[in-house]
Amino acid sequence: MKSMKNLALLLVMGILVVFAAACGGGETKETNTGDGNGEATEETALEGSVVIDGSGTVYPFMAKMAENYMTENEEVSVEVSRAGTSAGFKKFLAENGTDFNNASRHIKEEETALADDLGIEVKEFQVALDGLTFVINKDNDWATEMTQEDVVKIFLAEGGVTKWSDINPEWPAEEIKPMGPNENHGTNEFMFETIMEEKDFIDSVNLQQEYSTLVDLVSKDKNAIAFFGYGYYDSNKDKLGAVNVDFGKGPIAPSLETIGLDEEAAYSPFTRPVFTYLNVGLAKEKPQVLDYAIYAMENAQTVATETGFAPLKDEAIQESISYLEGLK
After folding, report:
1. At 164, phi and psi to the nearest 5?
2. Mean of the per-residue pLDDT values of the chain
3. Taking the domain 130-271, which CATH number applies?
4. Torsions phi, psi of 213, nearest 5?
5. In this predicted model, what pLDDT tens digit does every residue of 279-310 receive, in sequence order?
6. Cα–Cα distances in Å, from 217 out to 132, 183, 185, 253, 291?
């Protein structure tokens, strides 16, 4: 009888263990730092918000990243806006600022100084490579190839180019309509500071806040030419053409294969890195922000190619991930 009672007791205990396991089926994570004694404790699923603003160029990349992340982490809301690089830094470097700022240029000295004044620790992460692309109307069949010097002259006040025939006498003697993103965008600053060597824009240039506006304007005017990141051209190839630029070795079409910073990359003179900047203090305070940062770098190469950017090399990605893992 005693053995029968022991058997029954074991059966009951087994049922209770199975029941307890079934009730504990919610998503949890284990950590070895929870109780200070090195023993595993349970951590609840991630929740809360992640707030990102900044570059319109980087927006498609980060919006896709956020969409993918929220599919896997339904309790976290990732908000991605596109005020522009400079406008985004103003929101990022403020009390109760954003968690990330996307940028199509490096942070400026005065922005770094402001971060120091506010006690904000900022970390730069390169996420992809972009190629500055000059887009034209689909009906423009004459300016499909230009030298680097000629395409830049169109936007320079001192360039001496106002009509297509000023570049090539065989082209139409019609007024060129130059366009681009306004000063809120890092793309504008890259064009002005790096490509135009800080020389003034021509007075007739039409600078816009929204990239979608530029796409629409160029698609409706055969004499229009605009500059912006390759990704926006890539997603609007049905509406726009692109100038193949001759950097001295023949015309090069912007593409994921030609964009790169290495000397072997044919489109390298118009290539630039693009970034996201992290508020390190907020990443340490909010688990969802750090988790998103790690996720973004782990998936940066895949999302880059899906959104019109050239991916970074493995070493650069791993270096960023290692830094972020060290913040845990």
Report:
1. -60, -35
2. 89
3. 3.40.190.10
4. -65, -40
5. 999 999 999 999 999 999 999 999 999 999 99
6. 18, 18, 18, 22, 40
